[in-house]
Structure formats: structure tokens, C-alpha cells
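Subject: sequence -> C-alpha cells, single chain

Hey, anyone have a minute? Need the predicted structure for the following. Not urgent.
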Amino acid sequence: MRKLWLVASLALLFGCGKKEEAPVRQAPAAAVPEPAAQAADPRPTIVIFGDSISAGFGLDAGQSFPDLLQRDLAKYRVVNMGVSGDTTQDGLSRLSLALAEKPQLVVLELGGNDGLRGIPASITLQNLAQMIEAFQAAGARVLLAGMTLPPNYGPAFIARFEAVYKELAKKYQITLIPFLLEGVGGHDEFMQRDGLHPNAAGARKVEAIVLKSITPLLK
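Reply:
Had a minute. Here:
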């Protein structure tokens, strides 16, 4: 191990009648105060637990519907936990992070990627049910955001997929938004070029849909 040595040169002063100077004492260094802990946000928490639509895929910062909700619901802390590409199985894997926020209300916006990947509706239903049960057990109210699929998936598969949300809403007695992109999906002026994600104008319409459903749950 390499050692660094500091060599100090001492100058000895000799002279008639000259006294040796006393060494100068340095004042002890003042203790550096530790930064004060940031105060916790006291506002009730709303968690948006979803995929790319919640995450604001393709949008500029501040344009996602959770960002818009935060502006309209200033008395609440809106936590955007949308992750692009997440399936319901991915949602289960990070469920504990959402529960750690101790939400009063959860907007559950997952399942769309399950359908697009052809995952059986029974699996989607089972995963969403586990999340709903966990949120309710923690004392949170749940707003379920329903989705649908492009026509090329066939009427039978689409019908079964849409039924998942209706069954869950009925079983757990929770508020359902039948189709989160109502009036947005299929409208070029509100969608990005991929035809799957809302643009900034579309996100404002989505936020209005969510806000309308959330407001009664917060009273």
C-alpha cells in the first residue's frame, strides 16, 4: 500500500537576544451542521398506477394526465407511477412501491399491454384482482380505468378483454371508467402517430374524464 508522507521543514532561528516564537494554535474547525430533513408532504395521496398512458409517453414534461390532475387537485399529492410497457404482471412486481405511498385513492390503469400482447384475459383479471384487493386492504379507494383493443384483435377477444374490467368493478364495488380514451382513441387530432397514445390535446381530454370520476370519490 502506497503511503504519502508529509515532510515538514523546521527553520531554527538563532540570534542574540531573539526569543523563539511560540507556535500558533489553530482554532478547532467548526462542526458542519447536517442538512435538515425535508418535511413530509401532509396532503392526502393519489397514486396513478399505470402504463405508458399514465407515464405520458411521447409527451413533454408536464403534459401527462397525472400532471394535469396535480394542477387541478392542488390539495392532494398526485404520484405518477406510470411505467411505459408495463403489463399487469409488471404492476404486481412493483405493487409494494405503490402501497408505500399510503394512497387515499388509486387510479388503476393497467391491462392495455396485456391485451396488445395477446395475454389471456383470465390472467389479466387475476392480476388486477390481486392489486385491487391489496389497495383496498390498505384502506385506499380504487378507480379502475378500462381499456379496449384495436379491431384487428377480433370481436371475441376484444369482448372478453373489455369484460375483465366490468367483472372486477362489479365484484369489488369500485368505480369504473369503461374506456379511458373515450372520445380520444381513433381520433387523429387527439392521438400521436402510433395511434395508441394521446397527444397533448388528447391527454387533456383524458384528464377531464379521470377528474370527473375522481371528484365524487374524494368527497
